Amino acid sequence: MNWSGKRTSRPSRLPRRIRFAGWASWDFTFHGVQLRAGDAVTAYLSLASRDPHAFENPHVVDIDRKPRHLAFGTGPHTCLGLRLARLEIRIVLEIFLARFRNIRMAEGEQHKFHVGSVFGIDCLPLAWEPVGRDCSDG
Fold this sequence. Notes:
8 strands, elongated, single chain, alpha+beta, two-stranded antiparallel sheet
């Protein structure tokens, strides 16, 4: 259905805003994949902004990339906590990077993660050296 509530058989007329999970309302083919009414459909947020046809180096972390990723939504659906989250991340990274150097995966270790409706890191065994500083102040 389109936003007017009428059925459409053309995927190009699907609304641009996609729910993360749902069911196909009618039979259609999307990028060569046949979907039937009632089939489960999931749009993985972790794949947003990963299209190499649309983004240069899509698998490289680039905090200045335009347009931004969709983790905090967009337009009228932008997360109210976006600015707070960015501030918190900036503070943590600035302090961590000021206090430690040579940050790397611990030798012989591997990260562990999970996927689903969101991507999450369960274990990230890091090693680092502290930046030299005088700790005599307490």
